[in-house]
Amino acid sequence: MKKQKWIAGVDEAGRGPLAGPVAIGVALVPLDFDWSLIPGVGDSKKVNPKNREAVFRRAQKLKKAGLLDFHVALVSERIIDRINIAQAVRKGIETCFKKLNPHPTRTHVKLDGLLTAPPAFRMQETIVKGDAKERVIGLASILAKVTRDTYMVRIARKFPEYGFEVHKGYGTRVHRACIRDKGLSSIHRVTFCRNVASLP
To answer: Which of 34, 107, 165, 188 makes an SS bond possible with 6, Cβ 3.0 to 4.6 Å?
Structure first.
């Protein structure tokens, strides 16, 4: 087991919303992982919600069976406002790697977009649109998306006037109108909402 080689996929969900945390997902699978164990993996934006949730539940079962591992970190809107979104995502990635504790020299890290892993991981590659090209990144994408969406549906009960359960904090026309009418809630990203009044 100690000599096992691993692949880690890294992606985030919720970089652009006006409210709520950003979610960073890291999926860790053996190099010879059998992807037929978890069908339906792909870019979370192209997988419908029902199928995303099915993938998430399957990943939980495989994690319990010791066939893969994963962690999702939610970095709050307060931290995003304090250190900016890029630093918040980096913080989330570090949290996930500390939690999972993969071996740096036996883990090949694949990241979506412009993300980077901690420098101890020499074998890392950033792949543009990686969530659609690499299943391990797609899995991380789905895990992050489902975790964040679940959180936003739950927090919507505390702030029913904003409709978070529908738009998940993204800057839809309805959401922007709610902000102009009701002001900001405690889970809005202040730094993301400065120009809302001037938007249609």
So the answer is: 107
